[in-house]
Write a structure and sequence with these properties.
Elements: H1 9-12, H2 18-28, E1 47-51, E2 54-57, E3 62-65, H3 68-71, H4 80-90, H5 104-116, E4 123-127, H6 130-147, E5 155-159, H7 168-171, H8 177-180, E6 191-193, H9 207-225, E7 229-234, E8 238-239, E9 245-246, H10 250-262, E10 265-269, E11 293-296, E12 308-312, H11 314-318, H12 339-354, H13 357-371, H14 373-376, E13 381-387, E14 390-395, H15 400-416, E15 419-420, E16 427-430, H16 438-456
Parallel strand pairs: 3-15, 5-6, 5-7, 7-10, 10-11
Antiparallel strand pairs: 1-2, 2-3, 4-12, 8-9, 11-12, 13-14, 14-16
Length: 457
């Protein structure tokens, strides 16, 4: 059943066509992660509304959202249960400052998330976006060591190819040249250690062997610099923005042990990989470990409103609990713990609990993996891989000019087939919402294969 058409307030007062406001957008809106000149040849899609895993443009064309609108939309667009929760909250409280005040949604959300860790991570600090959460965790770690009399521990460690955000502090632990290099003079660089990316396996090595080799490289650094290192930051199981680099859980177990041994914090960036994306609610669960800091964002609000948070242990919280104001964590955002965003997150947790989402996703994942198998065996594909509700493969494109434009050409060709996919360089990946039915699973696989054939021809 097609969702009803509707007009926004702007459209009601503006008789100009959608193509006109696309042109106006190009004049007035600076779009993210975009070379704006490319939109001279690749037009913007004017979105009218969404329903389930579909986005619909102003001409009625439908696009299957194969990447959950940048990995945030877990339970479909215009989800009726999240909508109802937000409508109810809107009549109660839209926002109140969280300094000196509190409210029911932020308290309940903090308690429920802590319970999901068995109480290990018992304190939540809120912000609005993933990069902010990373910066909060980095600052908390740095400040913890200073409060604990070890102010020399000021350095951080990240993985090769890691991505943790694009604000200045987050760029310090991001190892993607495209995002980092232009701002190099502003950044205090972190130590970069080997990635456990299973694609780096040598002949005869397993993914666990790669994990052990990468952990050994980290230990070498810790042996030399542990007295100056505050924390190691890891994106558990999947390094997303570097091309969906997947690794064995053994790496997390080894890093947790090393951090304990050398008295260094472990910071888990679960902004993209948490909330069920890798198969468990928290990715760290699959390794049987908990970090010292855990960052969440993206899917935690169901893709509705900006929300991020850092979860941490009581021992860290207690290091800031003091009459001296300077020992407190004096970090703030105007919309910290926004009640509407927290209520959306609570509705999201309700859906996880009521619909047995994690088990249902296992069945969906098996079905989509089977539908994608023709790509896995294609000679033009390398490293077909899958983790939870993430699929990825690397296209074999040797010509430099074709390789440089592969992502844009694939994105455009997929849109022409009514499919939203946005490759990372030559890595094609799927991160769809958790609401695909059988027909949509078949459709996303068929359209992905057809797009690949066209772009590789």
């Amino acid at each position: 059943m097609r969702a009803p058409e509707y007009k926004t307030g702007t459209e009601l007062n503006d008789s100009r066509s959608p193509s006109d406001w696309v042109a106006r957008s190009l004049r007035s809106v600076w779009h993210p992660c975009t070379q704006m000149q490319h939109h001279e040849t690749v037009p913007l899609i004017p979105v009218s509304h969404g329903r389930g895993p579909w986005l619909v443009d102003t001409q009625g064309r439908e696009y299957l959202d194969g990447i959950s609108s940048w990995w945030v939309n877990l339970f479909g667009h215009a989800n009726p249960r999240i909508n109802a929760a937000l409508k109810d909250q809107l009549d109660r409280l839209e926002h109140a400052m969280l300094a000196g005040f509190t409210h029911a949604p932020v308290v309940e959300l903090s308690e429920r998330l802590s319970a999901l860790t068995g109480g290990v991570l018992g304190h939540c600090f809120y912000a609005s976006d993933g990069a902010s959460a990373v910066e909060i965790a980095l600052k908390m770690s740095f400040h913890y060591w200073r409060n604990s009399g070890q102010g020399q521990k000021q350095e951080f460690v990240c993985l090769a190819g890691s991505y943790h955000g694009e604000t200045i502090g987050a760029l310090a632990v991001t190892d993607v040249a495209l995002f980092r290099d232009a701002y190099g003079p502003l950044i205090q660089r972190a130590h970069v250690v080997a990635s456990p990316d299973a694609r780096l396996a040598r002949e005869g090595e397993s993914a666990a062997d790669v994990a052990r080799r990468a952990a050994a490289a980290l230990e070498t650094l810790l042996q030399e610099r542990a007295g100056q290192i505050a924390a190691v930051i890891v994106e558990p199981l999947v390094q997303c923005a570097t091309g969906m680099a997947m690794h064995d859980p053994e790496y997390l177990r080894l890093v947790r042990a090393l951090c304990d041994q050398y008295e260094v914090h472990l910071l888990a960036d679960e902004i993209a990989v948490g909330c069920g994306r890798t198969g468990s609610f928290f990715a760290c669960e699959q390794a049987g470990i908990w970090p010292d800091f855990l960052c969440l964002s993206k899917g935690i609000s169901g893709g509705y409103l900006p929300l991020s948070l850092v979860m941490t242990r009581d021992a860290i919280y207690q290091a800031f609990y003091d009459p001296d104001v300077t020992r407190g964590f004096l970090h703030s955002h105007s919309y910290t713990g926004n009640p509407l965003a927290c209520r959306a997150a609570l509705a999201t947790l309700d859906i996880f609990a009521q619909d047995d989402v994690l088990n249902t996703n296992r069945a969906r994942a098996h079905q989509l993996t089977q539908a994608l198998l023709p790509l896995a065996t294609d000679a033009r594909v390398r490293h077909f891989r899958h983790q939870g509700m993430i699929w990825a493969f690397d296209a074999v494109v040797d010509e430099p000019e074709r390789a440089a434009t592969f992502s844009r050409r694939f994105f455009t060709a997929a849109l022409q087939r009514g499919l939203l996919l946005r490759p990372i360089a030559r890595t094609v990946y799927l991160m769809p919402p958790y609401v695909l039915d059988d027909a949509e699973i078949a459709l996303i696989a068929d359209r992905t294969r057809a797009t690949f054939e066209e772009v590789m021809a």
